[in-house]
Amino acid sequence: MLAIILAAVGLLCASAIVAALAARSDRFSLVVGSAGAIVACAGGTVASVAALLGGAHGRARTPFATPLGRLHVALDSLSAFFLLCVFLVSGLAALYGIGYLRGYRRRIAPAVACFNLLVASMATIVLASDAVLFLLAWEVMSVSSFFLVTFESDREDVRRAGLIYLVASHASAAVLCVLFVLFARATGSFELDAWAAPGAVPAWLANVAFLLAVVGFGAKAGFWPFHVWLPDAHPAAPSHVSAVMSGVMIKMGIYGLLRMIVTVGGSPPAWWGGLLIGLGAASGILGVLHALAQHDLKRLLAYHSVENIGIITLGIGLGLLGRSIGRPEVATLGLAGGLLHVLNHGLFKGLLFQGAGSVLHATGTREIDRLGGLYRRMPHTATTFLVGSVAISGLPPLNGFVSEWLIYVGAFRGAAAFPMAGTVGAVVVFVSLALIGGLASACFVKAFGVVFLGEARSAEAAEAHESGRPMLGAMWALAVLCAGLGLSATFGARLAAPAARLLAGPGAAVAGATLATRLSGNVVLVAAILVAMLAGLALLRKLLLAGRQVGAAPTWGCGYSEPTARMQYTARSFAQPVLAPFAMLFHRAAHVEAPAGVFPERAARDEHLEDRAQRVLFPAVRAFSAALSRLGFIERGRVQVYLAYVLLTLVALLVWQAVIGSP
Amino acid sequence: MFDTILHVALLLLFPPLVVGVVQKTKAVFAGREGAPVLQPYFDLAKLMRKGAVYSRTTTWLFRAGPIVALAAALGAGLFVPLASSRAPIGFEGDVIAVAYLLGLGRFFTMAAALDTGSSFEGMGASREAAFAALAEPALFLAFAIVCVPAGSASFADAWRALPWRMWLEAHPELFAAALVLFAVLLAENSRMPVDDPNTHLELTMIHEVMVLDHSGPDLAFVLWASAVKLFVFAGLLVHLVLPIPAGWRGAGLFLIGLSVVALVVGIVESMMARLRLTRVPQFLVGASVLGAMGLLVALMERAG
Lengths: 663, 304
Hints:
The structure holds two protein chains of two kinds. By secondary structure, chain A is mainly α. Chain A contains 26 helices and five strands. In chain A, the strands form two sheets. A two-stranded antiparallel sheet of chain A has the order 1-2. Chain A has a two-stranded antiparallel ribbon with strand order 4-5. In chain A, helix 10 packs antiparallel against helix 14. The longest helix of chain A has about 35 residues, at about 330-365. Chain B has one domain. Chain B contains twelve helices and one strand, in the order H-H-H-E-H-H-H-H-H-H-H-H-H. The radius of gyration of chain B is 19 Å and the shape is globular.
């Protein structure tokens, strides 16, 4: 299986190079790049599912040496699970991209090449078994996605988002460098296998490494408050890239964190799980609240990624807590739920970003309050977006419910089985999940309802058109997958189970190897009952209405006979009462034009709820960079000066080696 | 088998009766004779025999809303204990499934409301969303008080493990659970003091305004679904307070309990004014706090 996956990575790189070289003909590079990506991702998906179900493992090294050791890749159940997420979502995004990129009036070859590189780098990160390859791939991922984020670089806001993204990526990479160097110093090797040897990593280092990983990988994943780059960067990219960034790329942060925990090995201290539960609850609740406050469809979805990362982290934190306390069944359930949510979120968030892209493509606007009534003009986009909305709200019978349900069951078991302090953690998990669930449905009723239902609020919305076949094909495929993983919950749980077992520790093999799979059979039962009821009642309604008079009329206006589309409830008004109790969490920026005079001519009120984390962190980063700019005198812009710096550094190193370094 | 048939029969036949008892109670309190207790059945029968009118703005979602709401409510009814403490279908985690099934019904009711493009119905959907989100944690805390000591998130296990002697010994957490469940019942079923089911001003409604445009069988489904929802919540409350044996005796006791809950809802409704909308979150957060305190007591009892 490893061979097929490596071949897929190779094909992605090769097609990226061809697409970049053939930049003169956009059409050719789009065809070659997308075909390469789709074929590679299809092969990779099949291979990773086979690896997960068959338990195939493998490893390989480069035959040649590179500085700091030979490059090393390995496939185990954790990497196979994340590879599945990478290939499945990216492959369908590439299909969508064929239709979406054609709409641009600019060079698209660089976007095609960077997209394939991004997918290849993510697959490599997941496979990497030494720190050098990991960091190399991490850097390729950051840079290729930076170029994708700044694809529409003639727009000021896109350039700004790109810069924020670049700074955040590199800040996180810097933290990861420190982490890996600390490990390498302690063990004398950059190989993950050497770090995993028993006793290789002392306990204090494991704790420091965990904190560094939470910051470094958490910044990538979008933990609150390290998420500040995310709501700007994700919407700026083309929509199929947003789908991959939100659906897959931020999960690389989760993967890194999990890989670090597996590598350090042993039973983690209880505070690791506790910290993750706290971060998960904060990211989940604050993420969904900020999503409610957005009026830009893609920005709303970006904040929902923060929320879903929170749900995933709640599951993982619960799992780690279960492992520390010695409750393998809780550990399995929490981890299986968290991991399955990684895949599920990839599917429905990919679908929703593609739906948002389809709306943007058709109307040219992302402002929710300028849309409306798109259902009749774009039935396929609307139906698939509805599937995604129900799935992301965690409602049965779709896939989001399965993973959240597993975490819930684990949390209830944990609350019953843990000692007091652990119980508090478990209670936090299910209470936050309950609140997040209610708020997420509110947010998606708002997003779906205001965009697709009612009457068009602007001329653009009234003249929208349905998207082309490749885009609809990708969206329908994702919608079918969301429904499929909900109706056959057991299959999804089986995919996540091996990796959950790996993380849950040796006890899990005995206590709960098939627990998550077995329990998720009950979700299938719920889904079956629901589907049967729906079918029966639909039939009943049909019979009741048969032969009766069915009329059509305008909407009841409560006595007002001349309503206009502008009188419909807007996204802002919908969100206002939901957010009112949480007002202190936001910074309220309002522009008010009060009515003046006896016969006021105009009045306006424009209100934005801003993210407090952004308002604190952005000025801090600006102040830091202003301080650093004092060092600008070093930069002379002359080659001779730079050569002199190189020489001086070499001399200094030689002196240091001669005086101190020699034994 | 007998238990299953009894359960399904109760679920299909009795929900409108609860609504009828509430309305009768309110009428008596107001000094009116009021409609007969069976009036909700007559309403349903009448609406089912009518045709329907649909707004030209709407899509199939508007027609699907009542179907999903009713399917979800009836589905939830299969998992909760009614005539005996064992529902026909029970498994670990059914507690969560019930809450989320009701959530699914709410999602489609709100979407159907937005489908009409009416500002009033949008307003109702928005309020419903706001209050439901806050009611959810309270509901889960109430469930947790019962489920955590039993060690399983399943109605059957949790209710079997309930110490019925709680009325003799001190089990304050179960009182808290009952109170929280009652508060959530009021909020989720759009009763006073959260919503006024009888108001005649669209601006002040929550649930009723969301379904303004439904007519005929659709409206019947909507009314039936809300009756089932009230029935499910009231049933949980009855089971929390009374030990219900299996069989006919249990069914009888259960129906008596249900009538008492309906009576209390009617009395609350007759004696209280609706809260100002900005106060409702405080009511719901208060319920959550009470639930959290109850859970804490339950955990301390376990530890000590």
